[in-house]
Amino acid sequence: MLISGIAALVFDNLLNSIIAAGFVSLMASALFYFLKAPDVAMTEAAIGAGLTTAIFVITLRKTEGSEKE
Amino acid sequence: MKFRNILALILIFILGFIILQAFNISPEEGQLVINKFGEAEIENRTAQLYINKSVNSNNEKVVFAESNNLESGSANIVTSVIANYRSLDTLGEVTVLFLAATGLAAVLYTNKKKKRNFIVDEASLILKTGVKILFPLLILAGAYIFIHGHLTPGGGFQGGAVIATAFLLKFLADREYKLAEHKLKIVEVLAGVSFVGLGLYALFTEGSFLANFLQTGTVGTLFSAGIIPLIYLSIGLKVGAELTSIISNLIEV
């Protein structure tokens, strides 16, 4: 989780960053589940790992953006 | 430029000072008494009252599948707080999501005929077939999550998000797939109106907004928890419609 969090910051390619951020959300969701908070885990898995990643990827495809201007 | 920076720093310090004042509770002035660590009477704390579901009555333990007609018959403690004791906060959350979806639609609004310009090639056969199987199952899972919100973990927000994920997969698999946006709006508006309507009905009959005006039944059965399943039904439909409209707006710009 920590490694992918740092990777999300370091990667130059924004698509890789988005995938790494989604992985952080997925790990956070597993962590919530093991900490006996299944409600929060479900929210994190559906919204954090699923929808947010998809919305970021769609926006990236539309803007064709990268780190450099 | 320098002067503005210094001014901003001073403003932040003033704001921080005001916020810190909020923590300055002295027991003499108000009714609040803060006990030392380890000496608090847990039996009379608000959290314990919520867990026993007896804020207004005597403080007795809840027994699964035996206790009946409690204040809030939900077996899931989180649900009984979110959709019963703190329903007004939930109404605020739903309103924030509604405003966000409306704002996004307003920003992305164009007069041009909508066409998708970023997807070039067809979806693969695996994705198409997988989505055909997964789509109804995901809708069913979402509906299950918010209908059983008072029994198992989950609730309106989670169920709505799962339903929106199902529609996202549908958009990815079928490049020509289009949603009738006005139907989404109708679902969303009806769900929101029914949420507020339940609250207003409770205000007139019970005397407080969003109070539980139905019989709450036995803890752990499907028809328990009074109006909580109705509230979660409206929240689930509303959140699902809002998130789906966000996705379809983003894809169809």
- Provide the helix percentage of chain A: over 70%
CA radius of gyration of chain B: 24 Å
Overall, the morphology of chain B is globular
Cα Rg of chain A: 13 Å
Number of strands of chain A: 0
Low-confidence runs of chain B (pLDDT<50, min 5 residues)? Answer: none
- How far apart the termini of chain B lie comes to 38 Å
Task: Please explain how this structure is put together.
With 69 residues, chain A is mainly α. Chain A is 81% helix and 0% strand. The model of chain A has no long low-confidence stretch (mean pLDDT 83). Chain B is mostly helical and 253 residues long. Chain B contains eight helices and no strands. Chain B has helices at 2-21, 46-51, 77-85, 87-107, 125-147, 156-173, 181-205, 228-251. In chain B, helix 3 (77-85) crosses helix 4, helix 5 packs antiparallel against helix 6 (156-173) and helix 6 packs parallel to helix 8 (228-251). The longest helix of chain B is centred in the last third of the chain and has 25 residues, at 181-205. The interface between A and B is medium-sized, with 15 and 20 residues.
Q: What secondary-structure arrangement, pairings included, does this model have?
A:
The complex is a heterodimer of chains A (69) and B (253).
Chain A: H1 2-10, H2 14-34, H3 38-63
Chain B: H1 2-21, H2 46-51, H3 77-85, H4 87-107, H5 125-147, H6 156-173, H7 181-205, H8 228-251
